[in-house]
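This part of the workshop introduces the protein records we will be handling. Backbone structure tokens are a discrete shorthand for how the chain folds in space. Once this layout is familiar, the rest of the handout is easier to follow. The record below serves as our worked example for the rest of this section.
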Amino acid sequence: MKKNEKYSFQSETKQLLHLMIHSLYSNKEIFIRELISNASDAIDKMRFKFLSNEHSDQKYRDMYIRILLDKKENKIVISDNGIGMTKQEIINNLGTIANSGTKSFLKSLNKENKKNNQLIGKFGVGFYSSFIVSDKVIVRTRHAEELNQNNGTLWKSDGKGEYTITSITKKEYGTDVELYLKKEEIDFLEDWKICNIVKKYSDHITIPIEIQEYDKKNKVFSWKQINTAQALWTLEKSKITDDQYKNFYKHITQDMNDPIIWSHNKVEGTQEYISLLYIPSKSHWDIWNRDQKKNGLKLYIKRIYIMDNAEQFLPSYLRFIKGILDTNDLPLNVSREMLQENNITHSLKTSITKRVLMLIKQLTKNNSQYQIFWKEFGLILKEGIAEDTKNQEKIAELLRFTSIKTNCIEQNLSLSEYIQNMPNNQEKIYFLTADSYATVSTSPHLEIFKKNNIDVLLLCDRIDEWMMNYLTDFKGKKFQSVNKIDDDLNKIVHEKSKSNNSLKKINTLLLKIQEVLKEKIKKVQLSYRLIDTPAILLIEKDAMSTQMSKLFMAAGQNIPPVQYIFEINPNHKLIKKISNLQDDKNINIWIQILFEEALLSERGSLDNPNDFINKINQIFINS
């Protein structure tokens, strides 16, 4: 008798099983789709193994997924002759969710979204959906490389915390999943129901899906194919419904949400390939984790599955794109390393990148849909400004911003719209970066622009400062940060100081400020851009910006302090008051407070906030 080895599920797996069994999946039929999808993946891997080892085409054609319904035992058996699993693989795959983000995912669930069945697909743990309808699940498997029939493995669990593993004899390689249904789920034992579910979710799978039939007259069992088993992307577009496109997307991505848009293209000529590209409606949970190699297309060569996540065909800033690429131009034995160096790969990457950018541009015609896209993937798309200089202008056309005139946190203004709305005498695209919308939208740098009805782009995403170092112009218009010196600004605003103070008093104050602040500033000068603010800090044209210096410091880089130009507003009541003071000590304190106020507004922080508070308190006491 074979010995049973007992194991406990990983703690995160236990939590996930509990959620799935009691509340997570509202659409129970999904378990059929998930198990068929797993079987399909196993057969794809087996197909590749045949190609690599030069097995005969006969075995390749004989692959199948079979569904057996047993009403006597209340069970469903889904079998495949795919690659199978070793004992260690079955422990890794079915006893553990091998995913560092699972714990944070589980913590993020609240009572409301625990009922949302879209979450599981993101974590690739669809096998556990079996326990929604089953009291017990048994898996029998043998890996294709295990030539000894006695090296099969049986996995069994009721989904409550433990599972057992037993060595068994299994004549054929592949996997059988037996689901012993709960009493209330016996509807799934009806042939018509299973056929409808397969037609709905898995009709496009290229492997025959068969269901067992019984001929009562001749008293024999036979297998009947219930799917068309034709690669969806090889069909004519006119013969594919939107629902079929959506279901295919869900099959290849395990995403429960519909995609926003897709593009299906067949290219013939110097290159021969078919691409089916999707833009999801939700970003993947680990899309910012660059160590995860899960961002790419499914690669097929001459209709034969080769690999998942072939990231070589898309630039990093388009890593949210999902879909398939089927090409006739690459060898069947291609590896990831070969793809990296292959000229055909580079040519395909150029073509597919162009296709994706056209697809995103098409999406801009529907503002509500584009806002969904932008909120999910706008930050990632911004990476393309630096990464893809050849397509920089195309990417820039797709960017969206908020501005003074839009007057809301929503980013829905394009650069083309900004230029179209510019006054005739405006030659530059003005922008300002900061840490938050609240900070950037209330900045004193905007005062003169608001007064003169000149729009300014307000950038508050962390990536924006870095992006603007690469985005220097658009359609012949240069970008200009409004917190840097701009010689052309005066040509637009025609502002001159109309100070009531005498020139002598102003010059005296400027000299005093330079004396008090010394090396803290590069120079002090009068401002023609302030309306309601007494003082402001500016940066030279080519100097490092405040935001960029903050990014470097956050990354642990030692950089020299920013050398600011200190501008004062001679028309402001506070400046007038200070220029009339006689007590040098009070003047010195006021000058330091003015500078630190401007620094706080510009940088968002002070090196010594307590010292700043003490100076303010002194002024209160002396006033």
In short: The first strand starts at residue 5 and ends at 8. The longest helix spans residues 30-53. The chain has four domains: 5-225, 232-363, 400-493, 503-622.
